[in-house]
Q: What sequence folds into this?
């Protein structure tokens, strides 16, 4: 038995990431990602951050099929 | 954490790409059917077709694709944040099992449960002026479903010591189902579909909508799991 022989890899339960490390990412990325979700799914519908309706018309089919309320 | 987030968004973009192909093949025929009904109504009412801001050809290809990719990236990123919190803490499987479990749970909680109360609607099947009401009710339904799921997860943690994993999961799931059912009964029903809207188009649209989400969340969970697992193997090999 040589030590060089690779031991078969057995996936173990991953070590949890400390909450202090997740928190800032969850806050900043969370806000940006939710805003993106809002722009794709809802803007220029019930509420408008960007004026007009070009965005709404462009992603129109995606909104309907993804299940967001649309006209 | 940064690499985890990027992997989530990458997996989300790939899942969004698969979603777009599925939606184009199976969803677009129903969207076209609904728009044909809309045009029929407009013609019967003697309305002159207005100028299109974005043509149907662009809406059904590029527009659908871009919407799917952005949606995938956003959902993938949020998925990675949830994974970071839950892995090794609440869901105690290996990376691939954890990602697949999370994808299944997210699909049920964020898509299927809200869909049961406020399902996806094709064009021309809702009243334009109620968009505000429909949007807020949909958001309330999604948010409450997520909050109740988080609550059920916390309840499961509390019960783990006394009941063991299997029974604690059953009790938490039952609590979630009962409470989400109460929420569904209390929220108002939306019933706006015109009586003469073609039933086959309606059925196919909703089936395609749900099918698309099955594709998207399955791909997200499996691809993200594979990416994280590969990373874990490499880390184990160099350690």
A:
């Amino acid at each position: 038995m040589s030590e060089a022989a690779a031991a078969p890899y057995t996936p173990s339960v991953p070590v949890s990431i400390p909450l202090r490390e997740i928190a800032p990412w969850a806050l900043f990325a969370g806000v940006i990602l939710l805003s993106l979700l809002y722009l794709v799914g809802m803007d220029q519908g019930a509420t408008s951050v960007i004026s007009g309706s070009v965005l709404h018309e462009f992603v129109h089919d995606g909104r309907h099929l993804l299940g967001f309320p649309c006209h | 954490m940064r690499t985890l987030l990027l992997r989530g968004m990458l997996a989300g973009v790939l899942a969004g790409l698969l979603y777009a192909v599925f939606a184009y093949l199976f969803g677009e025929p129903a969207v076209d059917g609904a728009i044909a009904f809309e045009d029929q109504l407009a013609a019967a009412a003697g309305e002159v077709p207005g100028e299109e801001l974005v043509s149907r050809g662009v809406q059904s290809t590029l527009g659908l694709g871009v919407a799917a990719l952005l949606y995938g990236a956003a959902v993938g990123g949020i998925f990675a944040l949830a994974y970071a919190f839950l892995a090794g803490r609440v869901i105690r499987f290996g990376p691939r099992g954890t990602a697949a479990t999370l994808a299944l749970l997210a699909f049920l909680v964020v898509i299927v449960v809200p869909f049961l109360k406020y399902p996806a609607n094709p064009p021309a099947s809702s009243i334009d002026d109620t968009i505000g009401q429909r949007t807020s009710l949909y958001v309330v339904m999604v948010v409450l479903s997520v909050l109740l799921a988080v609550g059920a997860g916390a309840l499961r943690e509390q019960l783990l010591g006394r009941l063991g994993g299997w029974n604690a999961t059953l009790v938490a799931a039952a609590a979630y189902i009962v409470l989400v059912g109460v929420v569904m009964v209390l929220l108002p029903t939306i019933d706006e579909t015109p009586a003469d809207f073609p039933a086959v188009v309606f059925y196919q649209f909703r089936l395609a909508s749900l099918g698309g989400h099955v594709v998207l969340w399955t791909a997200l969970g499996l691809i993200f799991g594979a990416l994280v697992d590969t990373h874990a193997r490499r880390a184990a090999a160099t350690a």
Q: What stands out?
A: The helical segments of chain B are 2-44, 56-86, 95-117, 131-186, 199-238. The first helix of chain B runs from residue 2 to 44.
